[in-house]
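Much of our argument rests on the idea that a fold can be written as discrete symbols. In the encoding step, the backbone of a single protein was reduced to a row of integers, each denoting a local shape. We regard such an encoding as a compact summary of how the chain folds. The record that follows shows the chain in one-letter code together with its fold in token form:
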Amino acid sequence: MRRQRAAPLFLRVYDRRMRRTSSVAVAGALLVTSAWGQSPTGAGQLPAGNGQDIAAAQCTPCHDVGRLVYPGYTREGWQSVIGRMTKLGATVTPEQLPLLTGYLAHAFPERPPPAARIIPGNVRVTFKEWAVATPGAFPHDPLATADGAIWYTGQRASLLGRIDPASGAIREYPTSIPDSGPHGLVADDAGNIWFTANSAGYIGKLDPASGAITAYRMPDERARDPHTAVFDRHGVLWFTVQGANFVGRLVPQTGEVRLAAPPTAHALPYGIVVSSQGVPFFAEFGTNRIGRIDPDTLDVREYVLPNAGSRPRRLGVTSDDAIWYSDYARGYIGRLDPGSGATREWPSPGGAASLPYGITALNDVIWFSESGVRPNTLVRFDPRSEKFQSWAIPSGGGVVRNMMPTRDGRIVLAESGVGKLALAEVQ
């Protein structure tokens, strides 16, 4: 959707109930294939209908049409989405609202997801889950800290939460700036918890002992949506700014924040990891590229993935510094060798509609979640044998947007739509 003239044109690409059907009409499938394969689309690729012009003017300058097709919503769901976007500064007049809502509900209805495909194997996984303390908080990212705790960002309630897995006790820390939309989450060596304020244009540092939060503002007013963050081996924080099309660096010792734009417009920088050599790599969710940031100059090099329809969303990195990506649009996982630029890809067990999302590496084995199937799955891929194994997530997952390994070889997952955190025990 288009913002007011006073603000530059950018918007977050929302992580909202990402579901997809296993079979759709041919016309719809052609529409999606076309939309995913290019930058923002115009009215010519939107279905005809009363309100098409509003959607073309307000939605497609920042969102591929494929993001409207999947997951789709009911009329009430589209009203909720539009309401959240207007809170961020999008402009929809009272006269346009019913027309746009009706058009979106008719053109892009809610679609039932396909059933999960469970692949058996020799590895045993058990799950333990905790509901977050504040209903509707929408846990977005998980964080396993050195003391054994599990943290989460409560994006819609503007808070951080800490779970003690031994007792189940939960403590929540509201942000000092209202409606910050906490999103990405990472800890430093001193035990401070850092988060990206996806709705308020800053990086926050929480001192868990005092509850005090320090805000590091973005140096460019366009950078209103910091997304995912990661520390390098020198304690420097690297982060993506999705809708504003930036990557950034924050030096905690000085508070200096620098931003750089990828060469590709509408790249939508998303997941980010750092190699063993201290080099940040990030997924460009708006195109078929993975970016590399020069740690000294912040210059960005892009690696083009072989399929134009690829949309890498999250990243993992193995000990050989290979970059692994979840191809959300095509239902694949892939491996990029930054040295040669060579890639390999494998179809996700759930198929083209499985929407692989959160991904990580544990002992050089790849773990990821299929967010487009019901229930969501946790999938294991062994690069040596090239074999998959998968498990249904007990509470359904509700879209697992991110995951990470613990120091003792387990995996934590945030289950956004069902309001839970999960700990997967691997045996």
Q: What stands out?
A: Residues 26-107 form one domain. The helical segments are 26-36, 52-58, 66-69, 75-87, 96-107.
